């Protein structure tokens, strides 16, 4: 299977893409930026992975981490994302999805793990002290 994608539909006046919105909770100005990034990525490469990588990198730069981009002719997705940061559109037969996951979810996980480790250490220390042993 080739990772090359067909050129998306363009309008006759220029080589700009004609995006067809499928689903989005992004503000309009952010949607416009996504279309501009898609246009730039499609102008640079016809490989789906390169288009996705370019869009992800630019979204991270513009709006902060952590963005994800999915590009292809056929894909399904069910994602968790930050409110106001999901966009799915078509360019001809090419689907392009971008969404942001916040790093806060990762940090919360690390804090919980650290808390549990400290609690276990404290309980072991407390048990050891009460039984006259050392840690």
UniProtKB/TrEMBL annotation:
In terms of Gene3D superfamilies, this protein maps to: Protein Inhibitor Of Neuronal Nitric Oxide Synthase (3.30.740.10)
TM region positions: 104-126
Q: What is this protein called?
A: Dynein light chain
Q: Which organism is it from?
A: Dekkera bruxellensis (Brettanomyces custersii)
What phylogenetic lineage does the species belong to? Answer: Eukaryota, Fungi, Dikarya, Ascomycota, Saccharomycotina
User: What is the protein's major site of localization?
Assistant: cytoplasm
* Keyword annotations of the record: Cytoplasm, Cytoskeleton, Dynein, Membrane, Microtubule, Motor protein, mRNA transport, Nuclear pore complex, Nucleus, Protein transport, Translocation, Transmembrane, Transmembrane helix, Transport
How does the annotation summarize its subunit structure? Answer: Cytoplasmic dynein consists of two catalytic heavy chains (HCs) and a number of non-catalytic subunits which present intermediate chains (ICs), light intermediate chains (LICs) and light chains (LCs).
Please provide the Gene Ontology terms (biological process) for this protein: microtubule-based process; mRNA transport; protein transport
């Amino acid at each position: 299977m080739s990772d090359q994608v067909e050129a998306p539909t363009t309008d006759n006046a220029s080589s700009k893409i004609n995006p067809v919105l499928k689903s989005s909770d992004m503000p309009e100005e952010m949607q416009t930026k996504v279309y501009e990034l898609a246009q730039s990525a499609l102008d640079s490469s016809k490989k789906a992975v390169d288009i996705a990588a370019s869009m992800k990198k630019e979204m991270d730069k513009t709006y902060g981490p952590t963005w994800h981009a999915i590009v292809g002719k056929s894909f399904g997705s069910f994602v968790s994302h930050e409110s106001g940061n999901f966009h799915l559109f078509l360019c001809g037969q090419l689907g392009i999805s971008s969404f942001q996951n916040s790093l806060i979810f990762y940090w919360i996980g690390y804090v919980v793990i650290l808390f549990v480790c400290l609690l276990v250490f404290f309980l072991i220390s407390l048990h050891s002290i009460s039984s006259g042993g050392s840690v």
